[in-house]
Specification:
Length: 126
């Protein structure tokens, strides 16, 4: 498949920009989880699944609680790894443990794709 003028190495990257693909691969290599990190997530399905996350993380990915992190704009492989670490018990949080126990690999990919696709702008103080 083609991504602009660059041949995409994997179908999961179709429609993604070259820099986003490179960032995903580098992050996946750093976190050591390429197979899950490149799963083709569905943004529409991820948005629907994110409804269960909105109380703490907000549908916009901006945390509503001080103890919950912002998810908007986080790298997709990082989100995949984090959710999978909660699923495996590597990371521990009572609320997250309850939420992730029923997630499938596809659910994780969809949620990660959705939250990673939210554009975040930063304005430096004057």
């Amino acid at each position: 498949m083609r991504d602009g003028n660059v041949l995409c190495p994997l179908p999961a990257f179709a429609g993604r920009g070259t820099l986003q693909v490179a960032a995903m691969l580098i992050t996946a290599l750093i976190f050591g989880n390429i197979s899950n990190a490149i799963a083709a997530g569905n943004l529409t399905a991820g948005r629907q699944k994110a409804l269960q996350c909105q109380t703490c993380h907000g549908l916009d990915g901006l945390s509503k609680l001080p103890e919950a992190p912002h998810l908007a704009g986080q790298p997709e492989p990082y989100l995949v790894k984090s959710l999978n670490d909660y699923r495996k018990g590597i990371r521990k949080n009572d609320m997250m443990t309850l939420v992730v126990e029923k997630l499938t690999d596809q659910d994780v990919a969809d949620l990660a794709a959705f939250y990673a696709a939210i554009e975040v702008t930063v304005k430096l103080p004057k």
